[in-house]
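Please predict the structure of the following assembly.
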Amino acid sequence: MALHLFARTGHPDFLDLPWDEPLDEWDDPRLVDIPAGLHRHVVRFVRYDQGLYVFKELPKRYAEREYRFLTFLREEGVPVVKAAGVATDRHRDGEPLESVIITKHLPYSLPYRLLFSRRSTHDLVDSMLDALVDLLVRIHLVGFMWGDCSLSNTLFRRDARRLAAYLVDTETGELHPNLTDGQRGYDLDLAMERTAGELLDLEAQGLVPDGLDPVWFGDQLLERYTHTWDVLTAQETFAASDRDRIRARLNAVNALGYDVGEVEVSAEDSGAEKLRMALHVVEPNRHRRLLFERTGLRAEESQARVLLADIDGYGAWLNETYGHDLPRDVLDRRWYQDSYLNALSRVPDDLWGRREGPQIFAESLDHWHWIMGEQGREMPFEEGVDDYVREILAPAEVEEVVSAEDAFTAPDPETGPLPMPDEGP
Ligand SMILES: Nc1ncnc2c1ncn2[C@@H]1O[C@H](COP(=O)(O)OP(=O)(O)O)[C@@H](O)[C@H]1O
Ligand SMILES: [Mg+2]
């Protein structure tokens, strides 16, 4: 039996699987049924000790492309599912079988149909649009033309009050040093057409909120994308005396959640009145990186922003209590143990699997502030968390496909330092 199996380290070796059978004929107790987006290939989910993996059967050329693209995009900091391996040159009784790409199942990922059918998300349509726009802009910035942008090929994860979009299906993509306007336009046209089609289908099933017009959705996608792209990439000419232009532009970029790595200013000729400014924008991961450095926690960008603000608030309160400024790392650690872990430890075991830790914390904070406003009184955070658990988390549906036992294991504050993070979702 010829088989070429290429698996990334840190994942199972996958050698125990029946590679000489077509994917849809696999029969193994570890196979699990999970709600997935609409798809054309055979897709199966297999559970290992290391987690859940997704197997997709497709022609060798596409499997290898998808593996390469996913790896490249991940290295560039773009939110994509994690590629774990590819199996090619498979045969059954001498007859060739298609190849298989293996990805790690994206934890707590929500297909769009589930989001619409459950209606449990704040400003769902708006959050979805922003998440999708963010994803498109980010892949375009690194020169990737998706060629298949649709809601089915996107997975969503909760991100504080927003959603974060992850790219799943890349086999039709193309990688270029830079995309032309035509290539970006093509991707956008497809995105508008596909999402409109998907929403029309949902509408037919009565799953779309009243008044949501699929054409409006596509128009919004284009409008928001164009705005973001222009702020991030437009070359701007300004008068040499107008230095504030640079600062204003950096602020506009930051307001969209992005950072600027370099600003390039050039003059047409020396002594010119007019300067030209071009920005080199970097991936909007600043808060998640900072949160990870300070606490070891992995979170989405908006979650990280919320948690970092809370760390600062908590630190200021501790300093005031102690009457002097404690070192930064002491404050971070105190927050982690006394605020973060303390809050999460109030979640009963059987409720794990509804949300991830950082999301529970961010939602608890929101709920706590809301309830104090409603009742017009101060309340200890613990009480707010308990109310959140009772009123919001307990009635919520399970969103993780792993069993509740392995969803969250709090490290022992006595023996362990901060938890060993896994590599992120
Ligand atoms: N790594 C993953 N994590 C979670 N869900 C996944 C993952 N890979 C695929 N899926 C699910 O499977 C569906 C089909 O995958 P996709 O790559 O789009 O297949 P196809 O090429 O057949 O369209 C997706 O819409 C998604 O719901
Ligand atoms: Mg697909």
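Residues 37 and 94 are 33 Å apart (CA to CA). The first strand starts at residue 4 and ends at 7.
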